[in-house]
Amino acid sequence: MRITMLAGGVGGAKFAKGVRALLRSPQFQRDHPDSALTIVTNVGDDMWLSGLKVCPDLDSIMYALADVNDTTRGWGRQDESERVSAEMGAYGVGWPWFTLGDLDLGTHIARTGLLRDGLTLSAVTAQLCSRWELGARLLPSSDDDVETWVELEPGYDEPEAVHFEEWWVRLRARVPARRFIQRGVDSAQPGAGVVEAIADADVVILAPSNPVVSVGTILGYPGAGGRAGVPGIPGVAEAVRETPAPVVGVSPIIESNPLRGMARQCLEALGQECSAEAVGLAYGSRRSGGLLDGWLVDDADAAALPSLRQTGLSARSAPLWMTDAETSRQLAADTLDFAAHC
Ligand code: FO1
């Protein structure tokens, strides 16, 4: 079974570990020999910092699947140190509020060197990942630089716009976002292998990642009430709409609370509601030109199932909280079972 998942960083990484655990289970290997997992990953958080290309979502998923991630912070490497970043700070370079650990810097230095040698981001990602047995293939959603920037509401003594990571980490989204801008998106192409991975899949899954700045920056997400949406990487949403595979999404929101991060502030910037139902409706049913065949919500949001179904979506509820390896694997199993019955 060829599974293609579209994901951002932290939420996507946990779900990806659950899917991988399922693929590695004896029963699944008997029923579906030669299965493979491909993860199309958001590049909107990426930035050039002190001359280095930093890719937070690709690294979160790579480190998590390699089991070398810092599970307490949710990003970066375990057993980390910060000697180099202290030196960089002493020279007044970089972002003092954005911690680049020594091991993590090894990744950015390796990546930047390979990019300067002329490799594409997808080729670089494949080489970095080949160090470990990840059990999945990581594909950047684009090989082009497409950075998410945040236009800030005026009146907070802040710049007119900041890189997403500055809004997320330095400002902690305390300054309202007026809109998100995907710099470079108009001339961006899908990353190498992305369209094929979606077209040739047996199942396509939208991971429980931030619907605006992780999934939306890949597939697009509409604005409401006159607010701007995000366009996504040209060509990727079309591939999802056209794939013969069932397309199912897992809600990143339970009872109007985002599982992680700041989906609420992101949705507010687009004039959109923060609920499992609203996100499922915004992604839309493929029957009416949207992205999904099925939308999986938490049992706590089961009341939304009838209205979701009215729009042509298959909808089901299941426990979405991934508290450990077993619940993540179970959610992956529930998601694939749902996809088989969409
Ligand atoms: N998140 C933080 O809250 N503080 C940091 O200092 C920080 C540093 C950092 C360095 C590299 C990297 O790949 C990620 C880092 N993150 C940090 C996490 C990052 O903001 C998130 O992983 C995503 O960008 C949001 O989904």
Automatic annotation (TrEMBL):
Record keyword Magnesium present: yes
Highest rank taxon of the organism: Bacteria
GO molecular function terms noted in the UniProt entry: LPPG:FO 2-phospho-L-lactate transferase activity; magnesium ion binding
UniProt xrefs under Pfam families: CofD
InterPro entries xref list: CofD, CofD-like_dom_sf, FbiA/CofD
EC number of the protein: 2.7.8.28
The keyword Magnesium is annotated on this UniProt entry: yes
Membrane-spanning residues: none
Keywords noted in UniProt: Magnesium, Transferase
EC primary class: transferase
HAMAP family: CofD
Protein name listed in UniProt: 2-phospho-L-lactate transferase
